[in-house]
């Protein structure tokens, strides 16, 4: 290109311009090609057409005033080559990356806003790198990064930069990154314990509600049990027991108290398990069953003493035999025992602070 003469040089300019811009786009950065023009030997001649063409290119190519003026000095123009050999160079004009957006937590960390994460992987990478430099220099400690399912392609980039998995739900994955290198991470782990409830439902005749499972470990074994299940997210113990009874059998009952609970450490995926036996009452003698057929095969009202003698469960399982025996009072009446009752209170004096149940 440096040796091009006259019209040949004129044809080279669009090509060089396109090459420079294409290379910059390939690197994912904004750029503008700038001509380094200076007086030189009259190899390109004094053609007015060439000077006019270069002047028209001056604006789009980002040539400043003095350099553009140099195009007409002495009627000569010298075009350098790209990089070291050419004097036509691609000068990058990359804007400063914006940090990822979020809010500070009370412990000197950052919780990023998943809705504001960029969808483009290259943009996310650039902004995450910039953010990590900014956070480290600013003394930020822990970073919480929630990536929605629709942006799951960003997870690999975060992991490559030191983020680790914390937990996952149906619609997102949560990752964390502890930035200090001289202090062990105190970030809390994922929830360690699942919470289950059992509904010990007593009717007006003093009989208890029992079911047989259509699925699960007791399916097909002719074993009767009380309705049970896990709490949903943000569900209170008393409400979960009432819900499980209604869902599995269609029976509406009122929570009275927690009679006992068991704490174990052999639940699925290495979790611990809390299981609460809740006493519920229904005023009806024999309410109509509406079974949850996907989970429950049969339901009945039975004498609790007969249930206690069922083998191998609960009679031959020490934990369950002890728990259920404590549900019967000294007078032989089911539920006539001390228990844990509830009271609903505000979280704080602030409006809309939310209601909490306390158990005592």
From TrEMBL:
List UniProt keywords, sorted A-Z: Hydrolase
GO MF terms on file? ADP-ribose diphosphatase activity; NAD binding; NADH pyrophosphatase activity
Q: Which residues form a coiled coil?
A: none
Pfam families reported for this sequence:
NUDIX, Nudix_hydro
Q: Which SUPFAM superfamilies match?
A: Nudix
| PROSITE patterns tied to this protein | NUDIX (PS51462)
User: Residue ranges of the Nudix hydrolase domain?
Assistant: 192-324
Family to which this protein belongs: Belongs to the Nudix hydrolase family.
This one is known as: Nudix hydrolase domain-containing protein
């Amino acid at each position: 290109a440096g040796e091009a003469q006259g019209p040949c040089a004129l044809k080279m300019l669009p090509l060089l311009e396109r090459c420079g811009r294409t290379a910059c786009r390939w690197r994912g950065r904004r750029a503008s090609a700038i001509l380094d023009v200076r007086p030189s030997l009259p190899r390109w001649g004094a053609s007015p057409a060439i000077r006019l063409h270069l002047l028209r290119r001056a604006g789009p190519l980002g040539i400043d005033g003095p350099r553009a003026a140099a195009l007409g000095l002495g009627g000569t123009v010298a075009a350098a080559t790209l990089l070291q050999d050419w004097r036509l160079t691609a000068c990058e004009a990359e804007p400063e990356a914006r940090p990822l957006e979020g809010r500070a937590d009370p412990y000197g960390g950052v919780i990023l806003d998943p809705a504001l994460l960029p969808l483009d992987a290259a943009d996310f990478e650039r902004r995450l790198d910039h953010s990590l430099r900014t956070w480290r220099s600013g003394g930020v400690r822990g970073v919480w990064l929630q990536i929605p399912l629709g942006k799951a392609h960003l997870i690999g980039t975060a992991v490559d930069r030191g983020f680790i998995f914390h937990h996952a739900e149906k619609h997102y994955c949560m990752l964390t990154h502890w930035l200090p290198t001289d202090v062990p991470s105190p970030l809390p782990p994922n929830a360690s314990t699942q919470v289950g409830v059992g509904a010990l439902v007593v009717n007006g005749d003093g009989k208890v509600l029992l079911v047989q499972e259509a699925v699960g470990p007791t399916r097909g074994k002719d074993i009767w049990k009380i309705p049970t299940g896990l709490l949903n997210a943000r569900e209170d113990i008393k409400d979960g027991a009432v819900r499980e009874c209604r869902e599995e059998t269609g029976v509406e009952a009122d929570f009275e108290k927690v009679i006992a609970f068991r704490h174990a450490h052999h639940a699925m995926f290495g979790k611990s398990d809390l299981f609460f036996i809740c006493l519920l009452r229904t005023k009806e003698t024999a309410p109509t069953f509406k079974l949850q057929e996907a989970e429950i095969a049969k339901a009945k009202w039975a004498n609790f003493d007969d249930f206690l003698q069922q083998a191998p469960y609960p009679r031959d399982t020490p934990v369950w035999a002890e728990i259920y025996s404590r549900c019967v009072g000294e007078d032989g009446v089911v539920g006539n025992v001390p228990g844990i009752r509830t009271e609903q209170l505000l979280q704080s004096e602030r409006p809309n602070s939310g209601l909490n149940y306390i158990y005592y």
